[in-house]
């Protein structure tokens, strides 16, 4: 019997409280593509809203609805006002995630997926203890360098900077809840989707089923 998996996901019951998924991996590993696919296929999941001081890449200004490109002064004000859940500096630019949209979504049973580096993941886990962290690994260093070169968005010097930063990030992958190797996109996506579905079914996120619902079943048995 054929089962439409995505139709099934649209009927998937939402948890009592949303889950926050933190995705990290070196530049060029494909984490943004994985996150975009997950956001598209799981209706109860949304992407976090981020801000950055870097310039948008080609066509990014029009397509990146979850990212704002701001001045350094604006970013600094957001940071001072406590409106960022996490923030960090990479490659001489600032990146951060807006706090209020995430907290609002989680309280309204909407799960959130966000990209962050090690510093950002540590900042978020210090505030939201049950956040789920996933690290995406490349199949090899050569494959990662080739992916960065194929993007044609960075100079040779910038590619080497991202390679060094990526190697530093990978040294902390054993501190994450899950690790996925993105050698085959379909396999990597299936693993990431399975993690999300399993985490949303955790007893801690379905307390109403484990509590009042079960009690009602017993009373009427």
Quick structural gist:
The chain has 221 residues and is α/β, with parallel strands linked by helices. The chain is built from ten helices and nine strands.
Written description of the protein model:
The protein is an alpha/beta fold. The chain has a domain at 5-47 and 110-207: P-loop containing nucleotide triphosphate hydrolases (Rossmann fold). Helix content is 47%, strand content 19%. The chain is built from 10 helices and 9 strands. The chain has helices at 5-10, 31-41, 60-63, 72-80, 99-107, 118-127, 141-151, 156-170, 185-200, 207-219; strands at residues 20-24, 45-47, 50-52, 67-69, 84-90, 93-98, 111-115, 132-137, 178-181. Strands 2-7-1-8-9 form a 5-stranded parallel β-sheet, sandwiched between helices. Helix 7 (141-151) crosses helix 8 (156-170). It is globular, with a radius of gyration of 19 Å. The protein starts with a helix and ends with a helix. The mean pLDDT is 87.
Q: How do the strands and helices of this protein lay out in sequence?
A:
Layout: H1 5-10, E1 20-24, H2 31-41, E2 45-47, E3 50-52, H3 60-63, E4 67-69, H4 72-80, E5 84-90, E6 93-98, H5 99-107, E7 111-115, H6 118-127, E8 132-137, H7 141-151, H8 156-170, E9 178-181, H9 185-200, H10 207-219
Parallel strand pairs: 1-7, 1-8, 2-7, 3-4, 8-9
Antiparallel strand pairs: 3-6, 5-6
Helix pairs in contact: 7-8
- Number of beta-strand segments: 9
CA radius of gyration is: 19 Å
Q: Any idea what the CATH superfamily of the domain at 5-47 and 110-207 is called?
A: P-loop containing nucleotide triphosphate hydrolases
| Low-confidence region ranges | none
Strand order of the largest sheet: 2-7-1-8-9
- Could you name the CATH class of the domain at 5-47 and 110-207? Alpha Beta
């Amino acid at each position: 019997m054929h089962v439409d998996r995505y139709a099934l996901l649209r009927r998937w019951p939402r948890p009592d409280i949303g889950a926050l998924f933190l995705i990290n991996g070196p530049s060029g590993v494909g984490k943004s593509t994985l996150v975009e696919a997950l956001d598209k296929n799981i209706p109860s999941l949304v992407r976090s809203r981020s801000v950055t001081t870097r310039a948008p890449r080609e066509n990014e200004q029009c397509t990146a609805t979850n990212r704002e490109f701001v001045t350094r002064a604006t970013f600094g004000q957001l940071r001072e006002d406590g409106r960022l859940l996490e923030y960090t500096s990479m490659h001489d630019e600032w990146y951060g995630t807006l706090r209020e949209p995430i907290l609002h979504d989680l309280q309204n049973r909407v799960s959130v997926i966000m990209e962050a580096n090690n510093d950002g993941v540590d900042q978020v886990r210090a505030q939201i203890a049950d956040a789920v962290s996933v690290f995406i690994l490349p199949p090899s260093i050569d494959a990662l360098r080739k992916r960065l070169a194929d993007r044609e968005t960075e100079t040779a010097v910038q590619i080497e900077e991202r390679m060094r930063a990526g190697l530093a990030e990978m040294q902390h992958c054993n501190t994450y809840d899950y690790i996925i190797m993105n050698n085959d996109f379909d396999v990597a996506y299936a693993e990431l989707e399975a993690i999300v579905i399993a985490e949303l079914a955790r007893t801690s996120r379905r307390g109403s089923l484990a509590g009042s619902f079960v009690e009602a079943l017993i009373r009427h048995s």
